[in-house]
Design brief:
Strand content: 15-25%
CATH superfamily of the largest domain: Ribonuclease H-like superfamily/Ribonuclease H
Number of helices: 5
Distance between the termini: 50 Å
CATH architecture of the largest domain: 2-Layer Sandwich
Strand order of the largest sheet: 1-2
Structural class: alpha+beta
Largest sheet: 2 strands, antiparallel
Radius of gyration: 21 Å
Number of strands: 6
Order of helices and strands: EEHEHEHHHEE
Helix content: 25-40%
């Protein structure tokens, strides 16, 4: 079983854990505790489903001691826990279906962690306007609006995306190379970069 903690605004995965069986409320609390330590502060609200791990006095006490208000997503209502459900759907499509799923828990955990790193840092998210979850979470300039290189000979120098190259007006466009890497060497998690060459 997978427990995932996602920041609702940025869609960034801030915590996850993999269990042999259904986690207890204590297991879930420990995952959330690690996520809070990792982020540096706790959320105002935690939105969950009504699984037994969350629908119990122990979880409510844990939230109360930390000043967190638990909220439950409405069953069958779009948007209530959609960010987590969408991550899990994407993970199944982009990670666990294209590979031979490892049978050992640690190997599977490593696959899921690699996917979460790729998802946060390299995967453009349509709901975020093409930005990655990490760009939104860390308030970074999105790569999809950064100035870019232009390979055409007579490219339009006046465009805002051409600003780093305005000194070479009228000259040949930049020479580019396409570099494809992979997170942890996993070919289903590509990192594509366009680099200027001399």
């Amino acid at each position: 079983m997978l427990a995932v903690v996602i920041d609702h605004v940025s869609r960034a995965v801030v915590g996850l854990a993999l269990f042999h069986d259904h986690p207890t409320s204590g297991d879930v609390q420990r995952v959330l505790e690690r996520a809070v330590r990792h982020v540096g502060y706790g959320p105002r609200y935690i939105i969950t489903d009504k699984s037994r791990q969350f629908w119990c006095d122990a979880f409510r006490r844990w939230c109360y001691r930390r000043g967190i208000r638990p909220r439950f997503g409405a069953v069958g209502k779009q948007g209530s826990i959609a960010a987590v459900e969408r991550f899990i759907r994407s993970m199944k499509t982009e990670c666990t279906r294209p590979i031979r799923v490892p049978l050992q828990l640690n190997a599977m955990r490593n696959e899921i962690i690699s996917y979460a790193v790729w998802y946060n840092h390299y995967r453009a998210n349509e709901a975020l306007g093409g930005r990655t979850p990490w760009e939104v979470y860390a308030d970074l300039q999105p790569a999809n609006i950064k100035p870019r290189y232009e390979p055409r000979r007579n490219w339009p120098c006046t465009g805002p995306c051409a600003s780093p190259q305005t000194g070479i007006r009228g000259k040949r466009g930049a020479r580019l190379s396409l570099v494809v890497g992979y997170v942890e060497g996993r070919r289903h998690l590509p990192v594509v970069e366009l680099r200027k060459t001399v």
